[in-house]
Amino acid sequence: MANLDHVSNVTPLIDIRNVSRSFPKANGEDLLVLDHVDLTIRPGEIVGLLGRSGSGKSTLLRIIAGLSKPSTGDALCRGETIAGPPKGVAMVFQSFALFPWLTVQQNVELGLEALGVDAVTREARAEAAIDLIGLGGFENAYPKELSGGMRQRVGFARALVVHPDLMLMDEPFSALDVLTAETLRTDIIDLWTEGRLPMKSVLIVTHNIEEAVLMCDRILVFSSNPGRIAAEIKVELPHPRNRLDPRFRALVDSI
Ligand code: ADP
Ligand code: MG
């Protein structure tokens, strides 16, 4: 057995403590969306968040991404309160969230601009990320010229280009038709397996159990109304980074 004692001593990358979030309703009452949620992500972990539509998953991700704030409780990144988008945290949005007036290249470079990376390095890194994700040759296209699957590839490239310490994925395949989703999911898992995705930790929101089991080493099950972590499941399959391990193939083939 590997000695994992040191892991618990590492400052968590993300520490969500007792976080609740409500939104005002039209009738003046508050809608409680997140109810005393605790969640810790340690460096290197691949965590899945599984829950019904409307259970508050995106709200939680937005808090971690610094796009929203808890009503009560603490949201910390590397021990510090999250006050805006934390350094090293990138997000792939369900609805792609590309800027329509920017080209593929410009959309992907955006994440690096915020980090103050110089123009020459930005261009080279964006091109590498675009190639990696299978969009080589589309650098100068605009989002409206691309299919949904290609747009989400841009979303992945924009997040990956920063080599994130934590990649947040909010149902990244759910806005795509079934076949496109399957192709992109397979491509992402293959690249991940080959160790070619430059991300260290991942929090992926999904309502697809198979996807969660295939990708994560820990799955949090979210209950609805209000959102609460109801169960935690440890996945015993090796996560994608270890899938070159022949035991994984044997296991999958035996299912
Ligand atoms: P999920 O991602 O699990 O589908 P969300 O976090 O998007 O759930 O939403 C949870 C609930 O919070 C929904 O009822 C949604 O309408 C509500 N909600 C989310 N964001 C806002 C907002 N900015 N203003 C008001 N209500 C919101
Ligand atoms: Mg959502």
TrEMBL record:
Keywords: ATP-binding, Nucleotide-binding, Transport. One of its GO terms (molecular function) is ATP binding. Residues 14-249 form the ABC transporter domain. The keyword ATP-binding applies. The keyword NAD does not apply. Belongs to the ABC transporter superfamily. This is Nitrate/sulfonate/bicarbonate ABC transporter ATP-binding protein.
